[in-house]
Amino acid sequence: MDFNSSSGGGGDLHNNHHQLQTDESKPLLGEVSAPGPPDGNKMGAALCRRALLHCNGMRYKLLQEGDIQVCVIRHPRTFLCKVLSSKLLRRWEPHHLTLTDKILASATPTGYMENAISYSAIEDVQLLSWENAPKYCLQLTIPGGTVLLQAANSYLRDQWFHSLQWKKKIYKYKKVLSNPSRWEVVLKEIRTLVDMALSSPLQDDSIHQAPLEIVSKLLSENTKLSTLEHENIIAAIAPLLENNHPPPDLCEFFCKHCRERPRSMVVIEVFTPVVQRILKHNMDFGKCPRLRLFTQEYILALNELNGGMEVVKKFIQSMHGPTGQCPHPRVLPNLVAVCLAAIYSCYEEFINRSDYDDWRPALASLLQPIPFPKEALAHEKFTKELKYVIQRFAEDPRQEVHSCLLSVRAGKDGWFQLYSPGGVACDDDGELFASMVRVCNNVHILMGSCYKTKKFLLSLAENKLGPCMLLALRGSQTMVEILCLMLEYNIIENNDTQLQIISTLESTEVGKRMYEQLCDRQRELKELQRKGGPTRLTLPTKSTDADLARLLSSGSFGNLENLSLAFTNVTSACAEQLIKLPSLKQLNLWSTQFGDAGLRLLSEHLTTLQVLNLCETPVTDAGLLALSSMKSLCSLNMNSTKLSADTYEDLKAKLPNLKEVDVRYTEAW
């Protein structure tokens, strides 16, 4: 090691004449303890304790990587004090370190960090916080030496300290619990692991998820545990489950317990709050189907209790709450999804029978009356399986097959209506619907007369206009024809909607050509467009940044005052298009992926915006603070965002016209 070299940013260690002490007897799961003071100095001990007490009130995000100064001292442990007192110790190296699951490694593996440091090689992690110690330093004790890490400030130092301790302990727990011997010891370790996660100053989703995943793996690899051992483990991890969804493998274990021990007290005492949280907070069972399966098995277990149906009813009542207005809007759709999934197996036999040509006409005839409730058709898995059958019907050239796509009686939708854009069973933006229209049109079933065409167009205009425009915007010739027919037969009465349809048609070559042909027949349509663009515009759900850009570039939108992008797939990238709308007063971004970068751009250009809806968007304080420059804002919805209480107070102080604010389901609520 070259003790004669030096670099900027390092700490001056030559004034430290004290020996660093390590606590070899420190337990794996014990509380964070201060490093021993040099030479038993009581003042140093007091400073260490005071520093840690200060840290205990702070909250930190778990570090995965970061920039820090590194100095490595190779020494026999007994000579550490002499090395630290050397005036020649001045060389520090800047490194970008990554904290993986197993090692501490540098992005540039050279110098001190040429070789990564395994967590198993780190004997201790300590703060250097006594008098005359180098500022903002951590000491990692490794065999044959010491690694010093120097942060830019005390907060970063403490963040590195807690993150390294967490990574080191979790790594050890994974090893300890991967090869269990005595289960009473394992149970004790699990309880201490849970306590460690609950008391950690690190505030990060992974802090509570890591112990759950360790236990989940432990259970999946040890399938012969007794019922008592199962219940003890579930009870041990219960505190973590109060605010966290169980991981997939743990859900399977819970399902097994519900099936095998439905009358166990664990079901009532532990699983009930877990299921309640799932029903209140789950956003999409499609992304986490095992949560749905666990909820289903839990309800079945309740039904096995004495007076099971009443127990289930009481559980539903508890989810609704005592008032007439349910405070949890996600509970009902989540319960419906669970119940519909439970009856899915009843209809599974229909699947794949459509592969046989000789059976297809009879199957189409049987399914035409639509024996399934619309709620079942809206269920993702059921719809996906049944869609395959309907696709085969639409592709079949025989009239007795594809004619069954239509309803069998008045007032009852057929497959054609249910899979049309916006229909309850449509999950593909209308691709299946477009193919059905094409087939029916070719054989003159649907579009054979003006009367039938107009009736059909009216039904589309009432409920499915947005998805039809989205398909036309993406080049579907069938949908372009339908939009032209709506204009030709004067189906649409609202001028703004007519102008949006015209802009949609002009956004593609095929649409532009067909619209020009229509204008040759109806010149008043051209006059309508010359009066200016629409004042209100609603983009269809599932529209993307590209769809919005294509639409806004196709015509004049200088008069646009109200734009709704709610429930679309737009992101911050669309802000480049939005800032080109000079008259925009109201913007709805509810449940989009519009983030901080987009907000900053809007705040610079749309200073006259009055109404902004950011409900259920990924915006954070970093972007929301930029809104303070939008002095015209009078209505702001930040429901279900990462808004903090401090940022909310700052916005209220800087936005004098703000009258309507929604901050539910945020820290400021």
Helix content percent band: 40-55%
Largest sheet: 7 strands, antiparallel
Please give the radius of gyration in angstroms.
32 Å
| Strand runs, count | 13
The strand line-up of the biggest sheet is: 4-3-2-1-7-6-5
**Class by SSE composition:** alpha/beta
Structure notes:
The protein is of the alpha/beta class and 669 residues long. Among the domains are: 38-168, Pleckstrin-homology domain (PH domain)/Phosphotyrosine-binding domain (PTB) (PH-domain like); 179-311; 561-669, Ribonuclease Inhibitor (Leucine-rich repeat, LRR (right-handed beta-alpha superhelix), Alpha-Beta Horseshoe). The chain has a seven-stranded antiparallel sheet with strand order 4-3-2-1-7-6-5, with helices on one face. It has a six-stranded parallel sheet with strand order 8-9-10-11-12-13. Strand 6 (137-142) and strand 7 form a beta hairpin. Helix 3 (154-178) runs parallel beside helix 5 (205-221), helix 7 (248-260) packs parallel to helix 9 (289-303) and helix 14 runs parallel beside helix 17 (431-442). The chain starts with 41 loop residues before the first helix and ends in a 7-residue tail after the last strand.
Write the layout of secondary structure elements.
Elements: H1 42-56, E1 65-74, H2 80-84, E2 93-99, E3 103-106, E4 117-118, E5 124-128, E6 137-142, E7 145-150, H3 154-178, H4 183-199, H5 205-221, H6 227-241, H7 248-260, H8 265-281, H9 289-303, H10 308-320, H11 331-342, H12 360-367, H13 374-377, H14 380-395, H15 399-402, H16 415-418, H17 431-442, H18 450-463, H19 465-473, H20 477-488, H21 495-505, H22 509-521, H23 524-530, E8 536-538, H24 545-552, E9 562-564, H25 575-578, E10 586-588, H26 596-605, E11 611-613, H27 621-624, E12 635-637, H28 645-654, E13 660-662
